[in-house]
Structures are given as structure tokens and as C-alpha cells.
Amino acid sequence: MAHPSPKFLISIVGPTAIGKTALSIKLAQHFNTEIISADSRQFFKEMNIGTAVPSPEELQAAPHHFIQNKSIQTTYNVGDFEREAILKLQKLHQKHNVVVMVGGSGLYVKAVRDGLDYFPEVDAQIRTDLNAKLKKDGLEVLQEQLKTLDPKAYSTIAIDNPKRVIRALEICIGTGQPYTSFLTDPEKERAFKTISIGLNAERSIIYNRINQRVDLMVENGLLDEVKELLPYKDLNALNTVGYKELFQYFNGHHSLDFALSEIKKNTRRFAKRQLTWFRKDPYIEWFDYKTDISQIISYIEAQF
After folding, report:
1. For residues 203 and 165, what is the distance between their CA atoms, to the nearest angstrom?
2. Residues in contact with 90: Cβ distance below 8 Å, sequence separation at least 6, in sequence order
3. Do domains 8-116+187-303 and 124-182 have the same CATH topology?
4. Which of 46, 136, 202, 284 is deepest in the core (most CB within 10 A)?
5. Does CATH place domain 8-116+187-303 in 3.40.50.300?
6. C-beta of residue 172 within 8 angstroms of C-beta of residue 201
């Protein structure tokens, strides 16, 4: 009896503006397959220029999924994405042994590869009470309480971070179970193997690319896009770099020059956070952003 071929997910990560989209299309064409976007800002159909959605030519160059498939008025979170992406991968893997996933939203990438930890709902009053206790008695008392209820959490979480301590305690108190009992096994079983590719460059190059991209967005009509979204500025999807700074400009709080320099600064900070997140991941094989595609393909094929 023939064994089914093993299935692979090629995950392309790295900081914003590094060239992930271009690489994902080349790989999708090479492996004659389709692309899943794990960029949480590109899910929304009303946001286009400011989220650097692939161009119409790029979208035609390979089939894409999870690009502009939701409305900003829909509440959509990483758990929803995990469920939908896994279902989509099951379908795609029926016709392709290899599928490409691209995006710099670390938590969304992790959700597809490893799964998320699920915590039960607990009474909101518990958190209120713990916050009051923190104010009155200080963090040490809460740390001691956690040590009693969940010694494992006490020794593994960021114990000096009051938010983390309260989060762990509210789960212990609300469920009667240790917080750590809800953390998933290191990896959920997946029906595919993930090959993670990271693109990187010297910081000055990343920052230059970001600055150029913001200028290009403005040339392509970013201001008009943001202006049309002004009535929705309080929606969660729009509380994001490139939009919130221009809302401030349209509301008369900033000059245009200041707003654009803030977008560049906040995007650079975002890129720095992305790199911090991805550098902790031992599974990523890093390549310079100018690496020849044939080298990356050789690495990938050696993992099959």
C-alpha cells in the first residue's frame, strides 16, 4: 500500500519591508503551490495601502488566501485564524505537498505551527479583586499566593510582572486548577512539517527600506485611504501603525510631516519587536534578504 506523501508548510518570517512577499511568490511558483498570509493587518478588505497588501500583479502570480477576506467591523482574533488556517491547509495539502505561509505576525505564525494555549473563561471579578489586593498589599503577597497554588508557574513566568502574576492567579482561582495545566504540550500534533525561513538584513538597511516604503505608500494614496476610514477610527483593526498617526493628523493634533515621521518611527519599532520575537525561535533558518533564491530552495529541499 502506498504511503501518502508527507506534507510541508514553508513559513517565511522576518521584519516588515524585508521582502517576504517577493520570496513567498518565487517559492510558490517554484513548488507550484499556493500562499497563506499570516499577516494580521492584511486580513481586512478596507485596509490596503497602509498594510502593504500584495499588488494585483503579485496576487495573480500565485493563489493567495487570507488577504483582505474580512471586514474591519468583524472581530477576528488569533484563535479564529488558527482554526481557519488549519482547515485551509488541510484542503490545500490534498492537492499540494508543499504550501507557503508568509507574514510577520509572530503569534499568528506560531498558532498555525504549534497551536495556541486555551484558557477557560473566569469571572472578571477575580481580576478586579486581585488588582485591589496588589494595590493594598503589594506584589510579593500575590507572588507567595501563586507559589502555593501553582509552584510551576511561580518558577517559570515573569514573576516581577504584576500582569503576568495576576493572569496566572485568576486562572488558578477561577478554575481550581493550576495555570500551567492549561498550557498546551510544547507542540500540538500537526499533519504537516513546518520549515521556517527568516529574512534579515543589517538594521540600517531595514530602517531605510521602511522609510522608503512609507514614502511610497503616501505616493500611492495612503492619505485618501485613511481619510475614508476616519468614521471607523475607534475600531480595533485600525488601531495600528500607519493609520492611527494619520487619524491624529486629520483630527488636527499633528502636522502631516510629524505624522509621517511617527509612522516611520513606529514601523521601525515594530520591526525591532518582530525581530526580538523571531530570534527566540530555534526553528528558524535565517538568510540575508539578498540571498539567491536557489540557495533557499536547496535548504528547503534538504529538509524534505
Report:
1. 34
2. 191
3. no
4. 284
5. yes
6. no
Annotated binding site for ATP: 14-21
pLDDT given at position 119: 81
- Beta-strand ranges (E) seen in the chain are 8-13, 35-37, 64-65, 98-102, 193-200, 284-288
Q: 78-122: per-residue pLDDT in tens?
A: 889 999 999 999 999 999 999 999 999 998 999 999 888 778 888
What is the residue type of 303? Answer: Q
Binding-site residue numbers for substrate are 16-21
Feature table: binding site: 14-21
The CATH class of the 124-182 domain is mainly alpha
Instruction: Please report where in the chains the cell 540571498 appears, as a residue.
Output: 291
Per-domain residue ranges of the chain = 8-116+187-303, 124-182
Q: What 3-state class would DSSP assign to 79?
A: helix
Cβ contacts of 220 within 8 Å, gap of 6 or more:
49
pTM of the model: 0.81
